[in-house]
Amino acid sequence: MWKPCLVLLLLFVVEKSVVACELIMGYRTNAKPPFINAAPDNSGLYFDLYEEAARRIDCRLIVLRQPKGRILHFLKHGDIDFYPGLSFSEERAQYVTFIPNGLKDGYIGLTRRSEPEIFSLNDVAKRNLVMVMAFGGYDLNAEDYGIHVRRPYDFTLEQIVDLIIEGRADFHAYNLLAVQHFLSNHPDKAAKLRMHQYCCSEPEQMYMAFSKQSAYAEMIDNADYLRHLPLTAENTPDSVSISSIAWKLRWALSSMQKDGSFQVIYGKYFGGAPMGRKN
């Protein structure tokens, strides 16, 4: 009789050990392609990236979808462990620690394929190219360079691309990742366009936000903190302990960069390798 009981006990212990580390990723309910689909479908780059990182440290990824305000409330109080992509602010740094997720984003330019390489907005001005930006969109202060800007109301990226292909505008600046994803899904339009990755801004590191109140955080004083410099995602008074799950997750994300698995996931959604500045 004791043998079946022992087997059941062992199975219980094994099951508990397998699911002992459950990392809860929170995200808003609406879609942000290609990072995540609309709830309840959690598939996308974020799930692939963090599921693999969690697997490498013997954790299981759980996804909670709620309105963003509620998710950030949960993050602040440690009811979820992390948000997959969040920009730095001093207010947020009070309740989350920022961990590089490997992604980089910035502004790049789009023109017809025949246009020579553009290295700065000065080139756009010198060539008298007409810039097109959706009404209310950030135009990189183009008018300070003397660039003429068209601002059609409520245009999508696809509509703006069509204006350029049809010759009714010449240049558009937009987020690198959004453009890469769009062109990978519209190869017919991509064949008629040129991306100018050095025109507009340096690609910047993106971060996941890990709750300081999470049981997996273990915050300690940051020995590398430079108090005479401004607070940034990397320069904060505290950091996660090397013994914490949060630190191990950071290590896992870094290891994915080194062994090429990050690049495989990136290529799945963006159709190519991550872009960066020339040396």
Helix-residue proportion: 25-40%
Radius of gyration: 22 Å
Tally of DSSP helical segments: 9
Main β-sheet description: 3 strands, antiparallel
| H-E string | HEHEHEEEHEEHEHHEEEEHH
Calculate the terminal CA-CA distance, rounded to whole Å. 70 Å
Strand content: 15-25%
* Total beta strands: 12
What average pLDDT do the residues reach? 91
Return the structural class.
Answer: alpha+beta
Taken from the alpha-carbon principal axes, the silhouette is globular
Multimerization status:
single chain
Poorly predicted residue ranges: 1-17
Strand order of the largest sheet: 3-10-4
Give a verbal description of the structure.
By secondary structure, this protein is α+β, with helices and mostly antiparallel strands. The chain is built from nine helices and twelve strands. It has helices spanning about 1-20, 45-55, 70-75, 120-125, 155-165, 175-185, 185-190, 245-260, 260-270, and strands spanning about 20-25, 60-65, 80-85, 95-105, 105-110, 130, 150, 170-175, 195, 205-210, 220, 240. The strands form five sheets. A three-stranded antiparallel β-sheet has the order 3-10-4. The chain has a three-stranded antiparallel β-sheet with strand order 8-5-9. The longest helix is centred in the N-terminal third of the chain and has 17 residues, at about 1-20.
